[in-house]
Amino acid sequence: MQYILETKHLSKRFKRQQAVEDVSLKIPAGRVYGLLGPNGAGKTTTLKMITGLLRPSGGEILIGGKPWERKQLERIGALIESPALYGNLTARENLTVHTKLLGQPARRIDEVLHTVDLQETGSKKASQFSLGMKQRLGIAIALLNRPELLILDEPTNGLDPLGIQELRELIRSFPAQGITVILSSHILSEVELIADYIGIISGGRLGYESIIHDGEDLETLFMQVVARNREQAGVHHA
């Protein structure tokens, strides 16, 4: 199997706190990978290391089989935490700023607006957008550089059921466009509906990684992995 991204024994320490410990992920190309874990499990920290926002304390990151380098970020689009939008600008104007920063042609604006279904927002300012529209605009910005890998950190957080459904359909459409997606979430039911693969992280450790099997009881699996990780952490600290 071809992996677009691998981490090997990845770790991150903040002073006295070990936020991520010995995480070895394998992200298959052309799939939606759900990184599941309770709040504070180390999901965002892991994604920030992959996108270069944090420097790992140990381990390595491979992109397309090659060691991580800053220039490889051109292959990655990311929406981590909330999207950085200019509230006084329209969707098109926000995207214009980013195309100039990224050196992308202006035609990409219409392409990504169409992809995220925001082409009809006209002169409406981003500050007047619903939370779901803001998330979709954030994804549009992340798509501008035609990434092979799209990283979305808790993208459905705070959305209403309709916003969640729209975002779910959008994310499911990406593999057919040649985009691999890593999606972090603490909502099991959401990941079950979107992802092909899952990794379960808790207490900074990856406790499970596999394809999602039909009829699998994800909740029981999740609770077992979290309990096992807590037990192991207790042994390590004893």
Automatic annotation (TrEMBL):
Pfam families reported in the protein's UniProt record: ABC_tran (PF00005)
Keyword Transport: yes
Keyword Transport: yes
Span of domain ABC transporter: 5-228
Coiled-coil region list: none
Organism domain of life: Bacteria
SMART domains xrefs: AAA (SM00382)
GO function term, MF aspect, one: ATP binding
Sorted UniProt keywords: ATP-binding, Nucleotide-binding, Transport
Entry-linked PANTHER family: ABC TRANSPORTER, ATP-BINDING PROTEIN (PTHR43335)
Similarity field: Belongs to the ABC transporter superfamily.
Name of the molecule in the record: Lantibiotic ABC transporter ATP-binding protein
Lineage: Bacteria, Bacillati, Bacillota, Bacilli, Bacillales
